[in-house]
Amino acid sequence: MRALAVLPVLLLAGCPSSHDPDLQGDDDGGGCGSGQACPCATPRTVGDFEMCADTETDGYKVTVRYTGAGALALDQSQVLLNGAPLADAASSFDAKTQTFTLEATGLAPSKYSLLFRMRTDAGRDVRPLFVPMWIGKGTRFADFTWQDATIYQILTDRFLNGSTANDLNNFTGDLARVDDDRSRWQGGDFAGITAKLREGYFDAMGVNTLWISSPIINSHRSQPSVQLTDTRRFASYHSYHPIATGYTHLDHLGFATPIEPAFGTAEELHALVNEAHARGIRIVPDFVANHVQREAALYQQHPEWFFPYNACDNRWDEARIGCWFTVDTPDFDYGGRPEAVQKVVDHALWMIQEFNFDGFRADALKHMDDKFVRALKTAIVAEIETTVGDHTMSIEPTVFYMVGESLGGWARYHVREDMVQGQVDEEYYNKTKAALLTFNISVRSLADFAIYNDTAYLTPQDNNGGRGGYPGAVMGNFFGNHDQVRALTEAGGRHERLRLAQTFLMTSPGNIPMIYQGDDIGTDGGQDPDNRKMHRFTNLSAAERASLANLQKAGKLREAHPALRRGERTHVVVEDWYWVYKLTYGGDEVIVAINRDDNKQFTPPAGFVDGLGNCANGVVPILSTCIFVKP
């Protein structure tokens, strides 16, 4: 069987197969405890457990031995596989050695994660053990690295209404104060996302990761604006006003469920994640940890865990630690309250373990004390990445990827080994928008920026009093998201410009393209709430269909060609309004042309054809792009 580690020298990423006689422990107990048979030669210690996890292309073997005080009480414990009770857990347990031996073969490619929630015969709750494994060949499954990711951002409430049964009534109670339909709940839900997964909507774009809204229940009242002078009221459809923060399997905080009922049930969220994983698609929810909404149980129980009211409005940098986003969003005092740090970190671990998530889009990192960010990372390394060999890199399939959001020049600050692997790259957004959407700078300026930026975060540099960047960094590239004016609107409604940005995004190597829902078809819109319209799938215009087709082709080419994901970019031709670059990785080579000029002449080497279908006979047409590959 194959150990989980991608790097063969890192044996602790899993364990060598226990059926190899040369790797068995000594009769005197070896490294597994006196008088006990070793499950493998190099078990990993995780809390009160020793564990090994081996995988092969269609199966796994996991050995887990409890090493804590007392004995496990199975009748008070749970072993879950992908959120469901494991039927044969009891029969796989040796009470004498306190060891589980779990094996499975003939498995379809997917993610298989075991979760051990144990209690002892003395009634003590044992810290859970989480064992994530990807089974199957290819970069969607066990050969995945985070450089292979393509992320599609979904505002869950604004994607697709898959079930009207969970729709909220916007016209009852305090919600009736929201008088702009664009700021009300629209009905999108987990069922809608799952339906599009099954239809292959994301597969058609080469998407293998979904960033979804935080699934934690939010306030169902109207909310004030961030701007103190703005008298409008808003609903919490975006999921940034959580009230069940702190929920774990041991502390329900009075909630029957912590899952946002407007999005669906916990069972429907499990179904979404499992459907995605079976397709080699990872799920990365928004994680909102900076603040809660005033109704939150933690704020009611522990007001001392939060800063006194202090407005962020017009003071985002000077008051970044401790300010309240609105008058109704108390801000955690993580620097002064270690018990708050532990409570929210435990909540994060519960979310990951319960729903088998693959990463977090960590909201508002800039506004939280570094103590929290470091504590979260430490806990994830220790309790989530239990099958990872090298936690400093992002090249193993079970690495838990965190991409933060820190605008205003802070993107580099948190990109460190002890914080997060990446951030949304604000400067990438600025340059792409200016060169390809608004035409405010030259393509030459974009070219000069891009070559450097592909690897800029792999080396440490000073930033805002810290030092960010490290070899495991993988940033999030984007040209639009829910906080920006829509890309098509920035482009003056011109789909040709949008398609320039689409192609550039999907051919930028080393980091992760992040596509905001609607930027696949070309949705227009100004500032919030106009940039958060319900996504459309039918009755598309010819221009919208062309933009969707362009992104689908570019995304599938990125999926097929490692040079577009992991390669090195070099210039071929650089002019003020025209740029040709080459990407190489091993034996794979791709050539990309971006043309803001009149028709240009370019003939690729023999054997290369344009996978987008725009360029032929040595001509790169005006306002078009080409991705030349060898079929």
Q: What are the salient characteristics of this protein?
A:
631 residues, alpha+beta, Immunoglobulin-like, eight-stranded parallel beta sheet, six-stranded antiparallel beta sheet, 11 helices, 20% strand, globular
Task: Note down, in words, how this protein is organized.
There is one protein chain. By secondary structure, the chain is an alpha+beta fold. The chain has a domain at 2-135: Sandwich (Immunoglobulin-like). It contains eleven helices and 29 strands. The strands form seven sheets. The protein has an eight-stranded parallel β-sheet with strand order 18-17-16-15-12-11-22-21.
Summarize the structure in short:
The chain has 631 residues and is an alpha+beta fold. The chain is built from 11 helices and 29 strands.
Main sheet record = 8 strands, parallel
Q: N- to C-terminal separation?
A: 34 Å
Total helical elements: 11
Mean pLDDT level: 93
C-alpha geometry: globular
Uncertain regions spanning at least 5 consecutive residues: 1-38
CATH topology of one domain: Immunoglobulin-like
Task: Give the helix/strand class.
Answer: alpha+beta
The CATH C-level class name of one domain? Mainly Beta
Helical percentage = 10-25%
Strand order of the largest sheet: 18-17-16-15-12-11-22-21
Query: What's the number of extended β-strand segments?
Result: 29
Classify the beta-strand content into a percent band.
15-25%
CATH-defined architecture of one domain: Sandwich
Rounded to an integer, what's the Rg over CA atoms?
Answer: 25 Å
